[in-house]
Amino acid sequence: MKKPELIVTPHDIHEIKDLIEAGADAFIIGEEKFGLRLAGEFKLNDLREAVELIKQYNKKVYVAINALMPNSLLDDLKTYIQEIKSLPIDALRFSDPGAYMIAKEVAPQMSLHWSSETLGTNYFTVNYWYDRGVERTVLAPEMMKESVIETKTFAKGEIEILVHGAICMFHSRRNLVGNYLKFQGQVVEKVQTREEGLQLFDPERKLYYPIFEDQQGTHIFNGSDVCMIDDLAEFIEVGVDSFRIDGVLKSSEYLLNVTKAYRLAIDMCIENREKYNQIGRALYKKLEEIQPNNRQLDRGFFYKPSIYKHK
Q1: Where on the tree of life does the source sit, at the highest rank (predicted)?
Q2: How many CB atoms lie within 10 A of CB 278?
């Protein structure tokens, strides 16, 4: 049985060695200017150093260029890919077809992963990209489990899914928080970054929704973190190629502990399914204990159909 890759998104280069020792197989890094909702930013010099370090341990590294691409960013993206194409990067992660075209033009030898957060919802769409030379597609986190399994069954290439972390539920290229505060008459001297810890509170559901701004605009996340640590078996059986842990909005210590737990879960699920079934729930409970305040764990959308009701 094939062992799926375990991907993590580090905050900085100082975390990488510890995450490798914790069991990470691959890393997603990049610049905020070109990558969407990265856990941390890796400017060009840091990126080069990180790639070198990751390769010393024979692990994989993927560079994110999956931001929404306005016209003003296209020339900069060309230059960026020119700068990094000689590095031993395992793949570029794009979303915009324009970024795909630029990557093909500037660095046709580089592998590509399609990483659109919302559009990868069926096997016809993912096969469209496989037919155009893409090696992997990242499925939308809104997909139910049965749809993920069906898509992998008919997919012509690799499939990646989010198994742990926050799901973005809203994104705008505009700085909505800053504009709102200005409308309220407040003096806004800086962008409302993730370090500010801003949250929207829903009194009906009693949930807190993290919100921050960066170079890509405004991002609002759901009120809980998806966790599938005790429910990986069917994904492994169908051959899902990569499980992703997203470190955005999380501490370094949290990311390290979650990586260790998923390394144990994946290995045990393959080597001793009976034991995995016995301890899976205990692993889930252990992760519940280290959750940040106001952040519950749940199954995301894997068991949650979309229901529309008329009032």
Answers
A1: Bacteria
A2: 11
Quick check: pTM over 0.85? yes
Q: What is the pLDDT of residues 37-82, one digit of tens each?
A: 899 999 999 999 999 999 999 999 999 999 989 999 999 999 999 9
| Residue, of 258 and 119, whose pLDDT is higher | 258
* All domains of the chain in start order, with CATH: 5-166+224-278 (3.20.20.330)
State the DSSP H helix or E strand holding residue 290, giving kind and residue range, or none if neither.
Answer: none
Neighbouring C-alpha atoms within 13 Å toward the C-beta of 102: 24
What are 200's strand-pairing partners?
209
Going through the chain in order, the beta strands assigned E by DSSP cover 5-8, 26-29, 60-65, 91-94, 112-114, 136-138, 158-172, 199-202, 207-214, 217-227, 242-245, 296-298
Distance between CA atoms of residues 233 and 228, nearest Å: 10
What is the distance between the alpha carbons of residues 223 and 231, in angstroms, rounded to a whole number? 21
Name residue 270's amino acid: I
Q: How far apart, in whole angstroms, are the C-alpha atoms of residue 67 and residue 261?
A: 30
Whether residue 93 is predicted with pLDDT greater than 90 in this model: the reply is yes
Residue 271 has a CB neighbour count (10 Å cut-off) of 11
**Backbone phi, then psi, for 133, in 5-degree steps?**
95, 0
Tell me whether strands 60-65 and 158-172 are parallel, antiparallel or unpaired: unpaired
Report the 10 Å Cβ neighbour count for 293: 5
In Å, what is the CA distance from 300 to each residue of 214, 215, 290? 25, 27, 18
Q: Give the mean model confidence (pLDDT) for residues 254-279.
A: 97
Count Cβ atoms within 10 A of the Cβ of residue 43 and give its class: 0-12 exposed, 13-18 middle, 19 or more buried. Answer: exposed
- pLDDT at position 190 over 60: no
Nearest to 163 by CA among 273, 92, 41, 247: 247
186-189 CB contacts, 8 Å cutoff, 24+ apart: none
CA pair distance 80, 67, nearest whole angstrom: 13
For residue 36, the Cα-to-chain-centroid distance in whole angstroms is 9
